[in-house]
User: What shape does this take?
Amino acid sequence: MTLLNVEDLTVTYATDDEPVHAVNDVSFTIDEGVNYGLAGESGSGKSTAAEALLGLLPGNGTVESGTIEFKGTDLTSLSDAERRDILWEDIAYIPQSAMDSLDPVMSTGDQIAQAIHTHRNVTDAKARDRVRELFEIVGLDPDRIDDYPHEFSGGMRQRVTIAMALALEPDLIIADEPTTGLDVIVQDKIIDKILEIQERMDSSLLLITHEIGVIAETCDELSILYGGKVMEQGSVDNVLVNPTNPYTMGLKNSFPEIDEGDEDPVAIPGSPPNLNQEPTACVFQDRCPFATDECGESHPDLVDLPNRNHRSACHRVKEAAQMRQAADEPET
Ligand code: ATP
Ligand code: MG
Assistant: This one.
């Protein structure tokens, strides 16, 4: 069954200058029990997409168009506040840099208890019991609920934010860069913990990260964003094993561990697109080694490929196999 269906979501930010077109016509669907990845370089619109669906955009952000259905209910007709109330019950959100935004002068347990009190009418004792239980779930010592954020390491603080997000037993966990800034061993542990919890609570997961290696390990399906556009989408097996979009190919080569690590990572040359105008050409055109004149004329539609659960936005999608081969050849 479909849990979340985002259709043609477009989000802009007002600035003193031109508006920023951060998310452009983005569509994706998360079915129950599915782990879904949202990948893309910094600035591709990942956090904006998540904040828009949660009703948590900053004041200068506007959802220009699109529909967001959660469990069959269209959320776009609701106010941001109404949407947040509905979603809090069902969606756990671990925002980007969550572990740095814990209140330094309040004990971690009190912060979680406060979140519980906001949404549930429970006694202080009950809330504390629940906090102890949540600490155990995320692998923290329940005797430390009165400790303050600075008394924990980065990885432990991230566990606190995960515990807070889980307080209400969500159907969907949205985690925005949950491991960025942590060392590699701690990263693995956090990812394992999120997966363990997600399985135990039988929730779905929307994992947002620029590291597609992490998505390859943990997700069933993904969307690759670039310049606020979905470039490629579908099952992890299709998209990451046989990418059909030059952007995905470049992104994959910049994270070689998912390719058995036989080559050094190669960052995609060039810089991200100007988001101050709606795309009139393929957003990846300037950096694409395979761009032709057609690519300068329009941004390609996201089209279904013949194999199941695979979509790509590329004017040269029919030549995907040749492009893939050329992209994989080491530079001479
Ligand atoms: P990162 O990997 O760095 O977290 P991201 O994919 O989450 O990046 P977003 O944070 O969604 O990207 O930003 C998308 C674009 O919108 C970027 O160009 C960013 O500079 C711009 N942007 C984000 N927030 C605002 C804001 N409040 N006002 C104006 N522009 C913004
Ligand atoms: Mg972000």
Q: What stands out?
A: The chain has a mean pLDDT of 91.
